[in-house]
């Protein structure tokens, strides 16, 4: 741990680790994540973290649910960060448990920055991000030498309000790029905005571009639909899929869509 960057701040005795809890299946945790959870005296747990993972916590560890699930509204980010800083200063071993990977749409970057400003260096333990689990669950790759030269992880739900990025996602530019450079699109938090995303992406991608939506990836109740970009919104509605789900768009899905159209909502392989 390196606290030398802030020599004027008090010596920090506690430790802080941002841990990726993966997409849900506890067996997808890394060994390092399990060790960090076992060492924690305080765990701050996000929504989308499978409670089964908390079985690794030591007896007596303080477990704080800071997501919507625990109460009504999501605990404000600033409050969570204050909690982390206070606990570290009190000498606790703090683990911030986040769904998937902490640095993929997990606000991990903001937390690391704010803790650093308070003189606390966080260690980050990667987790398997939902987009990876989603395509693995379908048995298709994200890249393929014949179909996709790369992959884009993108949010369907841009930050709004004060301090928001000025421009929301430029879906048309993304569609053109995905088409020309042959990229797979993996869209997080996109289900509620699917109509808009479909409409905009159709400016640069053909309507028959394969698409899939995977809900609860890696969990026993995983469901998916294989469809096309032109039918994205209607397929989601017909299948009754909702958050948390990842939308995948691209030719890597071609075999899947052909095999499964019309829409299937079963678990892959069942
Ligand atoms: N840090 C997380 C993403 C947090 S944003 C990660 O790396 O996976 C929350 C979004 O992630 C959800 O809206 C959904 O799009 C996606 N997500 C998280 N868990 C998921 C799961 N098990 N199945 C499908 N999508 C999931």
From TrEMBL:
<protein>
    <recommendedName>
        <fullName>uroporphyrinogen-III C-methyltransferase</fullName>
        <ecNumber>2.1.1.107</ecNumber>
    </recommendedName>
</protein>
<dbReference type="InterPro" id="IPR014776">
    <property type="entry name" value="4pyrrole_Mease_sub2"/>
</dbReference>
<dbReference type="InterPro" id="IPR035996">
    <property type="entry name" value="4pyrrol_Methylase_sf"/>
</dbReference>
<keyword id="KW-0808">Transferase</keyword>
<comment type="similarity">
    <text>Belongs to the precorrin methyltransferase family.</text>
</comment>
<dbReference type="Pfam" id="PF00590">
    <property type="entry name" value="TP_methylase"/>
</dbReference>
<feature type="domain" description="Tetrapyrrole methylase">
    <location>
        <begin position="16"/>
        <end position="232"/>
    </location>
</feature>
<dbReference type="GO" id="GO:0032259">
    <property type="term" value="P:methylation"/>
</dbReference>
<dbReference type="InterPro" id="IPR006366">
    <property type="entry name" value="CobA/CysG_C"/>
</dbReference>
<dbReference type="InterPro" id="IPR003043">
    <property type="entry name" value="Uropor_MeTrfase_CS"/>
</dbReference>
<dbReference type="GO" id="GO:0004851">
    <property type="term" value="F:uroporphyrin-III C-methyltransferase activity"/>
</dbReference>
<keyword id="KW-0489">Methyltransferase</keyword>
<dbReference type="InterPro" id="IPR014777">
    <property type="entry name" value="4pyrrole_Mease_sub1"/>
</dbReference>
<comment type="pathway">
    <text>Porphyrin-containing compound metabolism; siroheme biosynthesis; precorrin-2 from uroporphyrinogen III: step 1/1.</text>
</comment>
<dbReference type="GO" id="GO:0019354">
    <property type="term" value="P:siroheme biosynthetic process"/>
</dbReference>
<keyword id="KW-0627">Porphyrin biosynthesis</keyword>
<keyword id="KW-0949">S-adenosyl-L-methionine</keyword>
<dbReference type="InterPro" id="IPR050161">
    <property type="entry name" value="Siro_Cobalamin_biosynth"/>
</dbReference>
<dbReference type="InterPro" id="IPR000878">
    <property type="entry name" value="4pyrrol_Mease"/>
</dbReference>
